[in-house]
Amino acid sequence: MAxxxxxxxxxxxxxxxxxxxxxxxxxxxxxxEKFNFQQEIxxxxxxxxxxxxxxxxxxxxxxxxxxxxxxxxxxxxxAWTGSRMVQTARxxxxxxxxxxxxxxxxxxxxAYDNVSEDLLPEDELFTLEQKWWKRxxxxxxxERCPSDYVVTTAARQLKSRRIVAPNFLTVxxxxxxxxxxxxxxxxxxxxxxxxxxxEEGAADSRARDLTFDNYFLGVELWAMAWAKAGIEPTASPxxxxxxxxxxxxxxxxxxxxxxxxWLDRAHKSAKKVPGDIRLQWLENRVEADVRIxxxxxxxxxxxxxxxxxxxxxxxxxxxxxxxxxxxxxxxxQRGRRRERREHSSSEHRDRRQDARRRASPEHSRGxxxxxxxxxxxxxxxxxxxxxxxxxxxGCKEPCPKGKKxxxxxxxxGNGRVCGMRNHRACNHRFEDKEPERKRSRDRGRDQRxxxxxxxxx
Length: 457
Fold this sequence. Notes:
Blueprint: H1 2-11, H2 21-35, H3 39-48, H4 53-58, H5 65-69, H6 84-113, H7 122-136, H8 148-160, H9 174-178, E1 181-187, E2 195-202, H10 212-229, H11 256-270, H12 275-299, H13 305-315, H14 329-359, H15 386-390, H16 433-456
Antiparallel strand pairs: 1-2
Helix pairs in contact: 2-3, 2-6, 8-10, 10-11, 10-12, 12-13
């Protein structure tokens, strides 16, 4: 009985990992380089039998003893860099840093191990997996399946109706939950260089790089977690047996086919977007949809989360549409600037044309011009309809574009726009009004002269 108890105690003890002499020498040299003490000290530690960082930690009882038990016992021929006191202080810094790094790693490992205590009971997780298989007849690959912790979080959020969108780059897969990776632990922070201890069995808690594929993987994992947690039947499912034309949200709280439909649209639409803005485009739309889901699910307790997703899917359809002919925001801004320049240049062109018309030679009365000048607007700024002036059927009444239906011909001499409503530019009569008025005055003057001559006679 005593031997059995001793065996169990012995099984719970962790023996220190010992390195080979070559590996230990490389490790101690790196410690010496990082904390800037002499390699002769590392060689002396190696000669004492130090083969691991655990040995280095436990060979000294305190940092004060390092002087008496290490540097003071080194050969008298040792050429100290600076002084023995300085070298001793640097070894003490290295010794203390190993304890600080070990404590930090212990806290990190404990935090990870405590996660399992917050998981749903094993039988509940198993039941969810069985219901998933029974309904959908497939199990996702572990590298594209959410971890049990993610499913647990999703289940509790659905139950409390308080959905919290995570950082999608940190959502872990089932493979990451089961696999243990080598965790690199940095010792200390002195000297600008880092020494890392590689320990087995530490969980990889790092976030994925911010790329389109990694972000979409996180969205897919969290969406599947909602579907797994929402595999339960609705409170009052229809009595009719579910068939191909049924609304699955009436039978299941969060149907996978509804979530998958949203995922497929997101991925397909995002692939049409140029690569330089694809990730940002996807992030904006995912966050917008999730924001609506969260709000509606919180305020509408009579609806399941699946119904919310299905309803919002149709509401936000236009925001997910991207035409390959659409311009990027920068190109659109350039296009607007180009339109403003063209509009400004057209105004300057009209002014130049008006000046040329005023300086052009006058035509004789009734003579048709070969290329009559036309204006684009009146002097008060009213725009003239070019289609209405071009032909008898050129534009409808009233003008759909809000322009004026007035003759746009520029008159000779004064350069003014005709502006008459009773005819168009295409049938304008080109008569020289100024010479006509001058001839009328001449005829009146001649007539008065002849009448005066008759009276005198």
